[in-house]
Amino acid sequence: MKSNLRRKSFALVATAAMLVASFFVVQHARGESAKPFAPELKIDNFTFTVPSVTVAAGTEVTWVNRDDIPHTVVSQEGVFKSKALDTDDKFSFKFSQPGTYHYFCSIHPKMTAEVVVK
Fold it and tell me: At 2, is the pLDDT very low, low, confident or very high (cuts 50, 70, 90)?
C-alpha cells in the first residue's frame, strides 16, 4: 500500500516538474524570459508590513497603501520618492543596481524598511 502511494506521489511530482520545464522551454523558444519576482509590499496600520525584502537586480517593487491615512515611500539615499499615497494608491520602483535601499514614510518617519537587491 505504501509503495503504491509512493509511486503515485512520485508520478505526480514528476508530471508537475515536466509541466514547469515545458513552460520554460516554450518561453525560451518564443524568445521570452521568465519575469523576475515582482513583490507588492503593503503599508498598513502605520507599518511597512514587510520590514526587509530581497529581490534580484531588475525587479520592480510595488508598494500599496492599505491604511486609511496617507503615507509615502522615500529612499534614505535619495534614489526614489513617492507622492503621498492615499488608501489603495500604489507606487512602483525598478531596482537596477545591487545594494541595500533603506526607506521611510516622510509623514511618519518612524516607519522604516529596506529592499536588498542582489
Answer: low
